[in-house]
Design brief:
Helices cover 17% and strands 12% of the residues. The chain is of the alpha+beta class. Strands 1-2 form a two-stranded antiparallel sheet. The protein starts with 22 loop residues before the first strand and ends in a 19-residue tail after the last helix. It binds zinc ion. Zinc ion binds next to loops.
Length: 65
């Protein structure tokens, strides 16, 4: 059996990823990056989700009777 190692391309710059470790788990799956720079840039661009929507729960239980 021959194990073929598929070249993984950096999600950001599409260069071959030679070092594992710069990967990020996203809802779309595991994304690989060639370096920490590409990883941080991708996170800045695509994973910039402010935590505002989930904290919009207003409990308004006032017994107004
Ligand atoms: Zn890259």
């Amino acid at each position: 059996m021959v194990v073929v190692k598929y070249p993984v391309k950096c999600v950001l710059c599409e260069q071959p990823v030679e070092i594992e470790g710069f990967s990020t788990d996203t809802p779309q799956g595991r994304l690989a990056f060639c370096c920490a720079g590409c990883q941080s840039i991708y996170q800045l661009i695509y994973m910039n989700k402010p935590k505002a929507e989930t904290e919009h729960k207003t409990i308004n239980k006032k017994e107004d009777n």
